[in-house]
Amino acid sequence: MPTSSVGRLQRTGCTIVNSYSKHWACLFPQHGPGMKHTRKIALEAWQEEIVSEFTREFVRGLIHPDGSRSTNRVRRPCKDGDRWYEYPRYFSTNTSADIRRLFTDALDSLKIDWKQANERNISIAKREAVARLDEFVGPKY
Q1: Using CB atoms within 10 A of its CB, is residue 137 exposed (0-12), middle (13-18) or buried (19+)?
Q2: Residues 124, 105: contact at Cβ < 8 Å?
Q3: How does pLDDT run along the chain (141 residues), one tens digit per residue?
Q4: Structural contact between residues 89 and 125, judged by C-beta atoms closer than 8 angstroms
Q5: Burial class (CB within 10 angstroms; exposed 0-12, middle 13-18, buried 19+) of 59
């Protein structure tokens, strides 16, 4: 957007970048009126090329706003008493089936195992998969 002015505002852990143009919709055609889960969300061919080259960044960009890394604590009743164990896992929550599909397609291309936990949640809980995400997702701010 060569004719648009750009503003930057430094904050702890991030920089907020602002730019205004009526042509942003040309660059981001999936953006539009209404709730995102009620309209089609699809990448244009040029966006797919970028996602295939920067898949890790794409996954990180989906987890940071709509996901989490947490510790799952499980209690298993045993005859000798309850057995507790815990493990880390990632969740991504989104009402939009299209966005969930884009996320899981990206995980598939990175060969990261995932499961559909329920209608809106994708869970990444296998030790190897969590370790792979830990390599590039990083903490949320």
Answers
A1: buried
A2: no
A3: 677 888 899 988 888 888 888 777 777 656 667 766 777 788 889 899 999 999 999 999 999 988 999 998 999 899 999 999 899 999 999 999 999 999 999 999 999 999 999 999 999 999 999 999 999 998 776
A4: yes
A5: buried
Domain ranges in the chain are 37-136
3-state secondary structure of 31: coil
| Closest to 29 in 3D by CA, of 17, 6, 47, 2 | 47
- How many CA atoms lie less than 13 Å away from 75 in the CB half-sphere? 4
Pick the CATH number of 37-136 from 3.30.390.10, 3.10.28.10, 3.20.20.140, 3.40.190.10: 3.10.28.10
Instruction: For strands 67-76 and 14-19, give the pairing.
Output: unpaired
The structure tokens listed for 107 are 């995980």
DSSP output for 3-26: TS-EEEEEETTEEEEEE--TTHHH
What predicted TM-score, i.e. pTM, was given to this entire model?
0.75
